[in-house]
Specification:
- This protein is of the alpha+beta class.
- It contains 7 helices and 10 strands.
- The longest helix has 34 residues, at 228-261.
- 23% of the residues are buried.
- The model is unreliable at 6-38 (pLDDT under 50).
Amino acid sequence: GRTRNAFARLLSERSRTEPVGGRRSLPWSWQRSISPVSSDESEASFRRQSSVKLECQELTKIEAPRKVKPLNQQRLPHASVAQVRSLLEAEEGPLSTFLKETLGCFDLKASPWVEVEEEHAPMRAPTSVSRTRAQRSRYMVPLPDDVPDIVAKTLRLPKELTGATLNCIKYTDTELLMLQQSRAEGVMYSDRFRIQNIVLVKEHPEGGVEVSQWGEIVWTQPLPWTHGLIGKIIEKRTFHEVKEKAIDFGRILRDAVADASD
């Protein structure tokens, strides 16, 4: 099918030179000949990167909401779009800091950022000249103390959950749009919804950048009618948490920009 064909095309890219970080990398065959890691490790790494690309390509096309008020908005007068993107892609940047400090995640494992072909990029470009990069993090996260007992018992939630977050960034010189989707894994009905966050960073007319954030729960499939009450509880609690956490992420990003400017 289409997914298999797309994966086949990605595999064929192994022998081609692919742009990375604005420069052209060595062909795959040269990288393997000088790489200190084993061929099995290289193959596993390539498959993980291909999986991230495919997952990003399968996302619904999105753009920043036009008629919905942001959950959080701020101006960073001394930042640039390029600086914010660099911080977001940093190994110990705002994204990983948010997962660890705000959500209490541990055993965090993040894939490298990879280029997503423009024709397959899921988000609408701010302009015709744009690029898309994607990355996925996996982690363990403790079950929040305030989860209602009826939800925890019905869904048989453990004390610690396995989670995954996919980050897709589409950017130009003047604007950046990041889509973030997070999900739990291995628990009842966890495949039926995602926590989605959107971050828009654009140049401000008075200097610096303006950062706007939105968040919501996205249902990929409705819960059985017998679990309608559970669904309503999840939606209500999630919206409150998404709004609260948007403010936390905004603060972490603001602090990272300030630290980088010192």
